[in-house]
Every structure is written in structure tokens, then in C-alpha cells.
Amino acid sequence: MKKKLAASLMSASILTASLSGSMFAATPSTFKDLNNVPGQNKIQSLQEKGILKGVSATSFAPNATLTQAQAVQFISNGLNLAKLQLPDTDLTKTAHDLFPAVKNDAWYAAAFLDAANSGASIPADVKPTDKITREAYVDYLIDSLKTAGNLPMINILVPEIADEDQFDILSLGSTQLAIALEIVELDADKKFHPQQEITRAEAAVMLYNAIDYMNQLKQPITIQPIDDGEMHILPIKE
Q1: Whole domain around residue 168: which residue ranges?
Q2: H or E, element range at 225
Q3: Residue 135 lies in a domain
Q4: What CA–CA distances, in Å, run from 98 to 112, 122, 127, 184?
Q5: How many domains does the chain have?
């Protein structure tokens, strides 16, 4: 029974990540370059909520590669890291103190500071203008989600990743968890391409999925018996 209950808990966690319905109200987007872009509606939703900004008022540049600064800004805005702060945070520290390559007057300085104060693990030697890989972005995202969403400890079925040998072993776990929670997807060949630079569109879709999972996780759950004799965890309906 304990094994069945653990499996049901995991099923419930994954189920909440894939519940249908938009997070945000549908209003016209000002981005004009999202036609035929995978995840277009998700990107528009994040823009309408004020979480994402484009490279101009009408352009998101979905196929451009994401920089480290943009990645931290995406995640800090999306998971509202500004509202989180570790109890022992040294408020005298500036973004430049914590990240020497980040200037305090840079547009992304606040995002780096909020990420650090929330406990997100951003490398101190990060270069804001460098491009970020798919693997590194997911590691930032999942690490921040654990803090922002108070993500519970859960056992997952480790997904098969065909190019697992291309991962940094220290960040492989983040991608495995992200796949299990349906925040990211593998391609048709079960590959993730961890060392490829991530595009702005790919990063935005992953961010949307992470926010959606975090919001659904906050819904209360109950244990209900089903006719098959097993125990299933289901969301409580209002």
C-alpha cells in the first residue's frame, strides 16, 4: 500500500502540471513575430501578464539565443523571486558584490540580486552577456522553482534520456525532474541536447510550464478510493 500511495502521489504531481486551461486571460499580444512559433500562446500569455518583454515593443525575437542576463530576468519575474528572501540575507550586499560581472546600474541587476537573496544557485562568476545552454537554463529554473514553489520531495521514475552522456552530472537531476514534471520535453529521439544554446521561445515555454506547475501544486488534494481498489490522489474541486 505504501508503494501504491507513493506512486499515486507522484502521478498527482505530474497530473497537476498538465491540467488544461490557460494561466492568464487571453488578450491581444503586441508581439508580431510569433506566427508558427511552438508555444506561441504560452509566450503571449507571459507577455500579457507582464512577465516577459520583447527586444522591442512588437518583437520577441523567439529564435534568438538567450543570454545569462535574460535567463535570470525571465525566471526572477516569472517565479516572483523578489518576494522571497532567505532569513540570513545580508541586505548590504549589492548585485555587483555577489556577481562581480554584474554592474549595479544594469537593467538586469535587480533580477540577479533577487535570485541570490531567494537562495537560487546562480554561479558567482556568471557573465551576463554570455549565452546560456539548455542544460544550464533548466538547472536555474528548477533550482528556483524548488524555492519559489516550496517544491516537495518526491520520488520520480527517472526518464530515459538518449544523450544523457552529454550532461554535466551536477545538473542532470534538474533536467530529469523537469521532464518528469512535464516542464520540458525530449525530442522524438528522446534527446534533450543539453549543450545547445537555448532560444528565447524555448526558455519562455519552459518558464510558463514551471509557473503552471507551481500554481497547480498549491491546489488542495484529497485521497479517494477508486473501483480498481487502489488509492488515487485527486484535486479537491471547489
Answers
A1: 2-66+131-235
A2: strand 221-225
A3: yes
A4: 9, 10, 12, 30
A5: 1
Residue 25 located in a structural domain = yes
Write b or e for each residue in 201-215: b if 16 or more Cβ atoms lie within 10 A of its Cβ, otherwise e.
bbbbbbbbbbbbbbe
83-122 residue pLDDT tens = 988 888 888 999 999 999 999 999 999 999 999 999 999 9
* Model pLDDT for residues 183-234, shown as the tens digit of each residue: 999 999 999 999 999 999 999 999 999 999 998 876 554 434 444 444 444 4
Evaluate whether residue 85 is within a structural domain. Answer: no
CA-to-CA distance for 164 and 179, rounded, in angstroms? 13
Q: Which of 141, 153, 151, 150 is nearest to 115 (CA)?
A: 141
Residue type, 219: Q
Q: What is the mean predicted confidence (pLDDT) over 24-47?
A: 81
Measured CA to CA, the distance from residue 14 to residue 11 in angstroms comes to: 5
Q: Is residue 55 included in any domain, yes or no?
A: yes
- Residue 62 reports pLDDT greater than 50: yes
In this prediction the pTM is 0.79
Contacts of residues 40-45 at CB distance under 8 Å and 24 or more positions apart, as own/partner, are 42/204, 42/205, 42/208, 42/209, 43/201, 43/204, 43/205, 43/208, 45/208
